[in-house]
Amino acid sequence: MKKHLLFLGAPGAGKGTQAELLSQTYSYLHLSTGELLRKEIEMNTILGMQVKDIMNKGELVSDELVLKIVKQNLDNNKKGWILDGYPRNLSQANSLNKVLTEINQPLEVVFYLDIPEEVLIKRLLLRGRKDDTEETIRTRVDIYKKTTEPLIQYFKDLSLLEYIDADRDLKTISSDIELKMA
Ligand code: AP5
């Protein structure tokens, strides 16, 4: 059973939902950079105040800051982990590679959740998180296409990529993922 996993996909593809389900089933750490940053905002920390406006606009927080969060959390991990929302660009992918080499926990599989744009827009507008306004969704999708999408080929070249059709019901997607984890 694979225990070092990563979810890649556009905003609203279902990364957080699937990562959470899996983390409960296998007691793996679910490391969502978005979720951790939102907690900092909720708690009004200095970090939270630094990132609030950036996140509300749908832009990316600095690579250094996110790397710090990832490092702190992976260090505390024992059983296995699921990364969700990280890396988001080539520079973050290279940093992740270095961290994982240092802690000797190589990435084993990348699940790419593929979803049509019109479906993700509907899902996000329905969810209504603070950054789920039409304008912010547009920014997030544009940034995803420009900076994150190239990682699909990056992980494909490393023979780590597993394609998942994410435009299906939750359970069907989960079963598909679990089959590919074995
Ligand atoms: P982040 O929290 O990572 O947001 P995101 O990537 O835009 O992803 P979402 O949470 O919107 O979507 P998801 O794919 O997780 O889908 P979900 O399961 O929630 O990042 C937010 C911000 O933080 C960024 O914009 C940036 O500012 C900052 N940030 C985070 N990481 C960063 C990094 N590495 N570097 C720099 N900045 C960073 O599902 C969406 C909805 O669809 C839910 O309502 C869900 O219930 C529903 N749904 C899920 N699956 C299904 C299904 N199969 N059928 C029907 N509905 C479904």
CATH architecture: 3-Layer(aba) Sandwich
Examine the coordinates and then state which fold CATH places here, giving the name of the CATH topology. Rossmann fold
Which hetero ligands occur in this complex?
A: BIS(adenosine)-5'-pentaphosphate
Order of helices and strands: EHEHHHEHEHHHEH
As a percent range, the share of helical residues equals: 55-70%
Provide a quick synopsis of the model.
The chain is 58% helix and 14% strand. It is of the alpha/beta class.
Explain what you see.
The longest helix has 15 residues. The radius of gyration is 16 Å and the shape is globular. The chain has 9 helices and 5 strands. Strands 2-3-1-4-5 form a 5-stranded parallel sheet, sandwiched between helices. Helix 2 crosses helix 3. The protein has 182 residues and is an alpha/beta fold. It has a single domain, classed as P-loop containing nucleotide triphosphate hydrolases (Rossmann fold, 3-Layer(aba) Sandwich), CATH 3.40.50.300. The structure holds BIS(adenosine)-5'-pentaphosphate. BIS(adenosine)-5'-pentaphosphate binds next to helix 1, helix 2, helix 3, helix 6 and helix 9.
Topology:
Layout: E1 4-9, H1 15-26, E2 29-32, H2 33-42, H3 46-57, H4 63-75, E3 81-84, H5 90-102, E4 109-114, H6 117-127, H7 134-148, H8 150-157, E5 161-165, H9 170-181
Parallel strand pairs: 1-3, 1-4, 2-3, 4-5
Bound molecules: BIS(adenosine)-5'-pentaphosphate (AP5).
